[in-house]
Amino acid sequence: MRDVPAAPAGSRVFDGLNVAMAGSFASVNAARQVLERHGAAVSFGVTTRTDMVLLLPGSQGAKDSKLKAALRARIPIVSGRWVADCVRAGRRLPLHGSRTRSPACDAAEPAEPATTVRLSGYLLDPAQLPQHMLNEPSFIDLSQLDGPDDSEHDGNLGHDGSTSPSSTSSLTSSTTQRKTTPASSRLLFTEDNDHDSSEASTSLMMRTVQPDESAFGAVGIASSSLSQAAVPQAVPQSLTSTSSSSSSSATTPQRRFGWKTVKVFISSTFKDMHGERDHLTRVVFPELQERCERLRIHIHAIDLRWGVTGEEQPLQTCLAAVDEARPFFIGLLGDRYGWVPESYHLPTAADRERFSWLRSFPVGRSITNIEMHYGALKDIGSGIEQQQTASFYIRDPSFLSNVPQSLVDDFVERNSPQSSSNLQQLKTEIRRSGFHLFDHYPCSWRGVVDDKPMVGDLEAFGRDVLETLWRGVQNMYGQRRQQAALADHETLQHESFIESHSHGFIGRGNLLRSMEEFAYGSTLAPMVVRGEPGSGKTSLVAAFTRKLMHAGSVHVISHFVGATPGSTDIRHTLRRICTEISKHHHQGTTALDAIPEDYKELVELFAQLMATPCAAGSKPIVVVIDALNQLDNAYRAWALSWLPEELVAGGPRLIVSTLPGRVLDVLYRRRINELVVGALTVGDRQEIVTTTLAQHGKRLEPRQMQQLLEKPDAHKPLYLIIACEELRVFGVYEQLSKRIHTMAPSVPELLLEVLTRLENDHGVELVRAALSLIACSRGGVTEPELLRVLGKCHYAGEERDLEADEWGRISRSLRAFLSRSGHSDDAAGGRQITFFHEQLLIAVRRHYLGCHGAMDQSLDDSTTTTATAQQHQHRSELSDSASEFGLLQGNSFKVEMHRQLADYYERLLESCTNESYSYDGASTRAISELPYHLLKGHCWPRLHRRLCDLGFIEAKCAAGLTYDLVADFLMLREPEVREQLVRRGGGLNPVDVSSAALMLEELEQFIVFVQGRSHLLSRRPELTFSLANALPASSAPAIEATKRWNSLIETRAHLRWINKQDTADPCELTLLGHTMVARGCAYSPNARSNHAISCADDCTIRVWNVATGQELAVLRGHTKSIIWCTYSPDGSLIASAAWDKSIRLWNATTFQEVGCLRGHKGPVLSCAFDPFSGNRLVSGGHDGAVIVWELDTYHPKHVYTSSQAVLAVAWSNDGRHIASASKDGSVVVLKCNGGAGSGGDFVVRHSLGDAHSHGAMACAFAPDGRTLASTGEDRKVKMWDVASGSALRTLTGHNDNVCTCDWSPDGSKFMSGSQDNVILVWETTNWNRTAFLTGHTGTVNMCRFSPDSRRILSASFDRTIKIWSATQAVRRPSGHLARVLSVAYAPDGKRVLSGARDKTAIIWNADGTVPELTLTGHRSNVFGVAYSPNGDRVATASRDCQLMQWCAFSGTCTNVLTHESLVNGVAYSPDGMQLVSVCDDKLGRVWHARTGALHTQLFGHRDGVTCVAYSPDGKRYVTGSKDLTLKIWDAKTNRKVATLCGHQSIVHCCAFSPDGQRIVSGADNGTVIEWSAVNAKRLNSFSGHTAAVKGVAYSASGDIIVSGSTDMTVVLWDAKRGQEWCVFACMSRVTCVACSPIGSRIAVGDGSGQLYVLEPVGSARATSTAIATPAAAAAS
Predict the structure, then answer these.
(1) Is residue 1671 exposed (0-12), middle (13-18) or buried (19+ Cβ within 10 Å)?
(2) What is the pLDDT of residue 30?
(3) CA–CA gap between residue 47 and residue 993 (Å, rounded)
(4) Which of 33, 650, 764, 1071 counts the highest number of beta carbons within 10 A?
């Protein structure tokens, strides 16, 4: 130390202290002299005797092993300045003799109050740091020590693991002021590579970097304060502050556990160690890296086989690399001594000082000897940590007897006796050192491979290296496993993905700055990052995300599509992001089950959360979603209807990335901030190559670098990364230039070279099978799956896994090209293995599976501008090579791979199922994947067996895979699949080919079953059997259900539908989603798209996949009810007309709004495109105007004005005529003067003023344009001749206003829909009615034929959209034509009474099959019905404010009791003398049953009274109300005796138990409550229904409660246990239930007008007169 004065004579400042030093050799050597003069005992390693650690220049900071050891042992750490001060003052250290006492400053300089001081991610107790260290600007003070600054050679490691110029870190207190950063600089926020989550908090690492500097090139400065002038405008001040006095969660880095980079130096001679080095590189280190991932450690081998270029000093390079890798060192020795340098000359003074020990080192030693001496042997006995992490291996020379004489010199030192002597001396020193030694490890002569003499059979050697290194890593970093295990599993997977893709990230400084400015800015348009495949887009997003997470000033929610299993699923993606945002908003208290599963609800929640500003004082949120283009097609996620178009001020920021394609096309139609990831600069390319190779101790010469960077695809990071990986495993330096020269010029071709290399290394068949299995999978395979299938392929069909060693070899070679997601402990069987990049998937499919198209396109795209004739020739050669074994049998090989996977999943499934064919406990993955692989493997009989298995269907629905199941079935409708199945007989014997047609027919029936009931199966999968059993007995699902029941496979109690119809239900699918009245619907003209739209009063247009029933998108923009929607003729546009006076145009592909037409003065009620040209639109409105719009200019042209509202418009197919239907009853036909598509004026051709006696509601042209149909409020459909305007015919059949009509595209059918809830279909050849479609429970507002005329789409007042078969003949049903609203049994149980919305009541026989009497007379809905106790009379209550009594045998009305409000319910007293009616006027009324005289009125309810029931003993009756209460009344005095409070919504129904002791009630929120009729207390609550409970009843025994709900289910409850017993699903909303007083039957009415008579099955009830109890069922 030049400026440190000599201490007074005899001064022993450090007397008795043991001091370890962390720094460069020069620094340590200089300080050592000073410390020893003052009495210190100096060591280079930290031991149990160490009293303190001195930080010196050249230290790697927190990475230094000595510093880490000190931190773990809480050993004080001191700085050079403080040591100098102590020496100057001659002070003795107060911690002499006990390191537990902290070094303290002189009394004149009292320590400041304790504050938290951060050092590269570690927490140090300030009491253990001297005051000078707290106050000085740097813990490394270069001015205090002798020796040059050698930081050039001992630079810190950057985040990519590469060396970079040393940037001295700083440890400062919260009061330290720093100099202002130049304005041209910017702040980078990084974290030290060895960040450790075990500490309480983490420092914010910041570094000022010039604009052209790499973002992650160096470790930053640990700072606690920073001048505001240094902070960019876009970065909030909170990001730059880590003051201990104001630290908060806002500045704590979000990341819970960081990654660490560890290097291992491999020292050996070169010529004789090719085999060992190859084995380490290809086998050992890949497996070691896989293990280290559990500890979140990157491990790299520094292997200098060609890491020393001709321009460098090999000695300097090797020794520097040894330092870089400390403390891990491997020494390999054979019988060669290696190259001996002429001298130990070092080029710089710094190096000479750093390695001054070389001056005394014996001359004539080889580089290998010097490496081993410096790496481990030099410090034997000093207590340095290398004793735990250095190991040596000496080879057994017995293999030399098999080596050809011409190659022996490559393995034996025979020409230099001195070298031989030195070699033996070195081996002796190693054997005596005490380091781990594998002496005489076995090997054998392998031959010459790639011009390299190699030894083989190195498994024992490799295993020892692996286990020794792994123990060393665990000893040093084992605590990281427990810390990582505490983190959220999926979040850890995403963090691992971020780490792996940002590790080694280079350059892109401008892009990172732009993203940073957006994240902290206020722009309301989302940021879109786009780039070509291989451009490094994902790495950029990962690096940016990592940067934000480490900064800690924002809360980052990142989702990398493809990073984890399920991450490509849009529902999973939204649920995860919503969960994370909700946790942030609610301080981490949001439960996962609070987030919905339903896609539509998730979209709404996501939009709500993204529109919610962050709370004051909380961190802002940044949502990052990478690779939108990789999302699954489910719900048309690529159309981005779920993604907010604009951000909200103060709300979460949104950054997404995608490749060019349809997703980007959608985004381009929005307002976005686009960031383009272009080609890498030459500097960035060079840095990527240099950094990547440097991790393994390799580098290229300038000429080689230039050669590589001139490759056409070298501007893509993906190309460079693959190229570096290929060069890493290439071991012959002499041929390196040639290898680079012959390297493929593009990414696809380079990947084919990779495949060829892998085949050469591991054999064609195994590599082909492994990669093909991954390529054939959906989203990857797990390792157990891969091992078992590969084992069967490899061992000729044996059912055993591939040997671990065999798989280990190929797995480790493939490791760089595969991506592993999930966790080894996953229930699914382990981590899923997929390709690291889509380009490799394309290459594998082309190379092995015969899939040309995608790959050829990729090749063309990648070489369009740069390909040369030579490159095309190279590509052709590769293709020929692939054809040798891949393409000739590509398709059959692909089928075989699918069969192998299908076999595996089927065995897995069978191993989980028991003899009763139960799928309980079955593998969800097997259930999910099996049908796909059976189909792709052409295993038709097995596929038929699974998909027609009700147990399998239930298991798949129970696993949440209902829509996947629908997709499985729909694959069978693909033409090529049907052709394959029918033409080849489905894989059956030739004599049994006819069975294929039968198989297909049965599968089709199951398709209709699953598709039509998917909305129920997804919610209640346990209803699978019941739903199948409810189908016509001749249907395939019903036959399967019967078989299961008869063979005792199905034993669960269920309800048998006694009056089930034998005809198939014409309704194929019910689409649920609209929350208000559905007004319109339309099929897409593009039949292949399977799309349809609907609109409703909820101001939304919904897009559906009519094949699966999935909702694909919700279009929002209108502010009031949408009345009409339609497609353009080519299907490219959607038009919607709404009550907000506008017409909006939407892109039918992207679902984005593209235009808004305004011109009507009132609501727009209808619109239609010009079918001829498609560029015009006609609309009709409430203002009576008919307007034609030119879509090129949006110019409106008024062509006609009606005296009243125009309810419908239509355009003929030839484009020559427009028709309108008006509220005044008129129908007008307009003709274009200029002809079709001319744009000429329209004139009135016919005005049919008396078309309908009341309003005309709809009109439609026949496909040939000659006939016009119109419908009206007169309940008629009229046909008109367009040419003459004369009436052709009138169609009747509806019982209410006819609201809509349509012609089939082929002109063979016509249909109409009405307010009577019915759709009628006619044949146009003879006008016979062929179908009477019932099922809607409200007005049919619109109906449309499909493009192929085979199906009908309808929209109804009941909020549903239904799809019907247009080819099935359906007769008019006998019974109600509208919703059944009430039902009651006769006292003897032999007849059933029902009342309905069709204004009638019907008396049925006990089976509900024959309507014996129809009671007509009411003018509106019949809400309530009741039988008198003796069965001779019935009473009906109606919306027409009347209560009628009828003779139950003749149907004669005996009296009419008039009310002042609609009557909701009625009940007879048990003696038949009184009637109680309840009304909407809040009153109940008691009548004399015989005379009809009013006895009294009941006051007490505060809202409409909805239901009433008498007790069996006649002493009490109960009423339920909209006021949420029930009231019990004394029947004698008609006074209220109790009020039952507990329901949270309207009470719809109530009933007394047979013993009169209990009351049950059902409410609008789906709850059922049982009460004590004695003390008015709640006894039990039954929850299970998901919608309003409309009917409740007790069984005759009172043990069972029956409830019916608008969720379409009837549930039987065990009244005693409060548990659900069995469930039945109806075809529509359940509106009422009743139990027979004798027997076990139940009558149920639903919204379709169907009356169900049900009977419990599966219980001992042969002689029972009541529904069997669950206990009885168990006994049976």
Answers:
(1) middle
(2) 64
(3) 82
(4) 1071
Helices (H), 126-213: 131-135
Question: 523-576 pLDDT, tens per residue?
Answer: 889 999 998 887 888 889 988 988 888 777 888 899 988 777 667 878 888 988
- Residue matched to tokens 């897009």: 1103
pTM above 0.70, yes or no: no
* DSSP secondary structure string for all residues of 1610-1621: EEEEETTTTEEE
Which stretch, 46-55, 235-244, 820-829, 919-928, has highest mean pLDDT?
919-928
Distance separating alpha carbons of residues 281 and 289, to the nearest angstrom: 11
Mean pLDDT of 1053-1058: 88
SS3 648: coil
The pLDDT, as a whole number, for residue 873 is: 40
CA torsion sign for 1572, 1576, 1582, 1586 is positive
User: Do 1353 and 1361 meet the contact criterion of CB atoms below 8 Å apart?
Assistant: yes
Q: What is the C-alpha to C-alpha distance for residues 1205 and 1081, in angstroms, rounded to an integer?
A: 21
The C-alpha angle 1413, 1416, 1422, rounded to 5 degrees, equals 100
91, 106 Cβ separation under 8 angstroms? yes
Report the chain's C-alpha Rg in angstroms.
Answer: 41
Distance CA 1577, CA 265 (A): 79
Percent of the chain residues past pLDDT 90, beyond the cut? 28
Residue 758's alpha-carbon distances to 761, 784, 802, 804, in angstroms, are: 5, 21, 18, 18
Q: Give whole-number Cα distances, 1425 to 1382, 1435, 1635, 1656, in Å.
A: 6, 6, 14, 24
Q: What distance in Å separates the CA atoms of residue 1581 and residue 1561, rounded to the nearest whole number?
A: 10
Determine whether 1232 is exposed, middle or buried from the number of CB atoms within 10 Å of its CB (0-12, 13-18, 19+): buried
3-state class of 140 per DSSP? Answer: coil
Residue type, 1583: S
Residue with tokens 């009153």: 1483
Q: Are the beta carbons of 1542 and 1565 closer than 8 angstroms?
A: no
Is residue 540 classed as helix, strand or coil in its secondary structure? helix
Question: 372-378: long-range contacts at Cβ-Cβ below 8 A with a sequence spacing of 24 or more?
Answer: 372/267, 372/331, 372/426, 372/430, 374/319, 374/322, 375/265, 375/267, 375/322, 375/326, 375/329, 375/331, 376/329, 376/331, 376/433, 376/435, 377/429, 377/430, 377/433
The amino acid occupying position 983 is R
* DSSP secondary structure code for residue 1110 in this structure: -
Question: Torsion angle of alpha carbons 1331, 1332, 1335, 1336, nearest 10°?
Answer: 110
Cis preceding-peptide flag for 327 (omega within 30 of 0): yes
CA dihedral (1010, 1014, 1018, 1020) positive or negative: negative
What does the alpha-carbon distance between residue 511 and residue 681 come to, in Å, rounded to a whole number?
A: 13
- Please determine, for residue 765, whether its predicted confidence score (pLDDT) is greater than 50: yes
1269: nearest Cα among 1254, 1296, 1290, 1239: 1290
Tokens encoding 384 = 């340095």
Neighbours of 1240 (CB within 10 A): 12
- Tell me: the pLDDT tens digits for 933-964? 998 888 888 888 899 999 899 888 888 788 77
**Predicted confidence (pLDDT) per residue in 41-54, tens digit:** 776 566 656 777 77
What are the pLDDT digits (tens) for 1301-1336?
Answer: 999 999 999 999 999 888 999 999 999 888 888 888
- Do 807 and 477 contact (CB within 8 A), yes or no? no
pLDDT for residue 58:
61
What backbone phi and psi angles, to 5 degrees, belong to 207? Answer: -145, 140
Q: Determine contact, residues 1125/1100, Cβ cutoff 8 Å.
A: no
Is the Cβ–Cβ distance between 1212 and 1282 less than 8 Å? yes
In contact, 659 and 677? CB cutoff 8 Å? no
Please give the pLDDT value at position 566. 67
Task: Count how many residues are written for the chain.
Answer: 1676
Q: Is residue 21 helix, strand or coil?
A: strand
